């Protein structure tokens, strides 16, 4: 019989998981609750059919939700017991999570937990305020603890390559009707009541140019949508998140490492902007692996920086995510 404190921990984990980052804010997950165990499941209906045919970005998103659940359970006084891909006959079951031994959340865990609902994705340039090297080192260590490698890209030539590949991929995708329609599906017009997708104030109407240029997705697509933010012109600190392998286990681990990095960064006033366009095109991803990633598999291109632009966040209600009513 589950006791009251364990139930509180489970409820907190479900609520926290809603706030995990996901590609285009697709929120591609559902949850089942059986006794004292939560099942995290991938929602294949929310996979990007064009941009994510392999399901790589979907599983990275689910991995981020898994780390968020683990953090919430720790913050509520239990060590989480996690089994990743526990049933080969149920490939959509990403993980099971339940409260284990009683524990006391340390200061570092509590700090991460405080950022779960505060963290935001940024979609423009950053201010000129630097990201401290000591923080970057801590972010690198956080990724390593989750089985991934975060590599800050400092050399101007390498930064130029990342920016150039991003521009090339964005140019190709913007001219392809399939890609454009898929992005439009997840773009929310002003005043929309939808609880998923990218809200109109989640990106600037006209972003100030950075040097070199790292283009964002064209969520407005022929509309004059977007917020008033995005005045910063700094690219921040470009970084690559890579893994040694490139299968489902690694993608889930990468998502967990990514969320650890994002929450830790947010706790110190640093946001992330993502650029996955080049990683969605196999020839460009292979080029990056060979030329910039020392043979490891690139899973995420991001920029880390400081911004004062506040954006809203939308998430689906738990009633739409959990297959039984919460009692």
Automatic annotation (TrEMBL):
Record-level Gene Ontology MF annotations: oxidoreductase activity
InterPro entries attached to this UniProt entry: Nitroreductase (IPR029479), Nitroreductase-like (IPR000415), Nitroreductase/BluB (IPR050627)
A Pfam family per the record: Nitroreductase
SUPFAM superfamilies membership: FMN-dependent nitroreductase-like (SSF55469)
Domain Nitroreductase: 9-36
Region (Disordered): 190-214
Family annotation (PANTHER family): NAD(P)H NITROREDUCTASE RV3131-RELATED, NADPH NITROREDUCTASE
Name of the protein: Nitroreductase domain-containing protein
